[in-house]
Structure formats: structure tokens, C-alpha cells
Amino acid sequence: MNFLAHIFLSGDDDEITIGNFIADSIRGNNYTHLPEKVQKGITLHRAIDTFTDAHPTFRKSTKRLHPNYSHYSGVIVDVYYDHFLAKNWLDYSDTPLKIFTENFYSLLEKNYEILPPRTKRMMPFMIKDNWLFNYAKLEGISGVLRGLNQRTGNKSKMNLAIVDLKEHYTEFENEFSIFFEDLMVHTQEKFIELTKE
Length: 197
Fold this sequence. Notes:
Layout: H1 3-8, H2 14-22, H3 36-54, H4 56-69, H5 73-87, H6 97-110, H7 117-128, H8 131-134, H9 138-151, H10 161-167, H11 169-196
Helix pairs in contact: 2-3, 3-11, 4-5, 4-11, 5-9, 5-11
């Protein structure tokens, strides 16, 4: 899953949210210096990724893209699914997306000191262009896909994946809905397990 889903699935715990968000910037076990709950957030992030990659509905979505995007298909579906979460936000949260994203950006600023260098570099761009809120719009998703393509030296052609999204919009949205229900249940179980320790 992409940023918005990871943040949303962290519940109301600020430290777990930070850990879940920064996990992709942490290599291996290089996080034992961080607060305990931030470490649990990193563990939660990795559990979400493992569940996602193995889920048959997520794999069905990636298979549709595989002929054109090969091993980048999973990254693209992560982005698509964040779009559908943002677009259908009020089906999942009582807090409006605008307020949710503003609260998250404030949380990042308050915890700036413990963020990894990669997150610190990305943060100003994320806030300035309001990535999380703009996931709800196709233009926002198109911008994300262009950025990802640039990061691969334009080899992945992920910028073209906005066409695939428009072409198979209903199928991807239905698959997201099925998958996300399962992911929420799985994450809640993992969350309980982690916070009991």
C-alpha cells in the first residue's frame, strides 16, 4: 500500500503512525534507536506489505498491468489503491480527508528530529503539493506516477499507467474495495498483537 493507506491503518497512535510512515526509509533492523512504539509502527508497515503482496485480489490487479509494467505493477497498484481510498474516504473515516492530512503533516513537523534523512528530504514536497489530499483526483495520481517514472530514469514508463487506470477504472475500484476490507481486518489483528506486547 502507498502512504495514505499506511497512515490511515495506524489508528490514533501518533508514534505508530510515524513508524508506519517512515518504514520504507529504514533498512533492515536499523531502527532500534527509535522509540518503542515507532518501532512497532515499522513492524506494522512490514506486516501490511507482506499481506498485500500475497493477497489474491491485489495480485489480480497487478496481473492486469504486468504485460506493460512488469515488476513495477505492484508499485502502480499501491498508488491506484491510495486513489480509491482518498476518493471514497468518507466510507472509511469520520474525519474529512483535508483535516486528516493537515493533522498528519503537523505530526511530521512535530517529530522532525526522529525522521530518517530520506523522509526529511521528501517532506517539504509532500506538504507543499499536498500529496495525500490530491490522491483523490486523477491529476494528483498522474503526478505521482510521473514522479515515480522519473525516479526510475524514465525506464518504468509508470507515467503511462494513468491510461490503464482510466481504462479499467471500475475493475480496479471494485478490487480495491474487496481487498481493503480484508486488509483492515488483518491490520486490526496485527495492531492488537503489537500493542499487547
